[in-house]
């Protein structure tokens, strides 16, 4: 197994997902951590498996993962 460089959002699919999540959170102030958690749960519940697959599915990563021995 190969590791990604320490900070390389281009090859880290979760970075693209969090970018989408943060769109819902920008310019907001939360009164408490519990309120933020509730809002975040609601945001995450909006995403379908298809949404997540389309956001995080990098063709070049999926192709590389299909190479035998990689």
From TrEMBL:
One of its GO terms (molecular function) is nucleic acid binding. InterPro entries: RNaseH_sf (IPR036397). This is Uncharacterized protein. It comes from Crocosphaera watsonii WH 8502. The lineage of its organism: Bacteria, Bacillati, Cyanobacteriota, Cyanophyceae, Oscillatoriophycideae.
């Amino acid at each position: 197994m190969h590791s990604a460089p320490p900070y390389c959002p281009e090859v880290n699919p979760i970075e693209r997902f969090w970018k989408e999540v943060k769109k819902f959170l920008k310019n907001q102030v939360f009164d408490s951590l519990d309120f933020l958690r509730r809002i975040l749960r609601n945001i995450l519940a909006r995403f379908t498996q298809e949404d997540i697959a389309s956001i995080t599915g990098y063709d070049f990563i999926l192709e590389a993962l299909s190479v035998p021995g990689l």
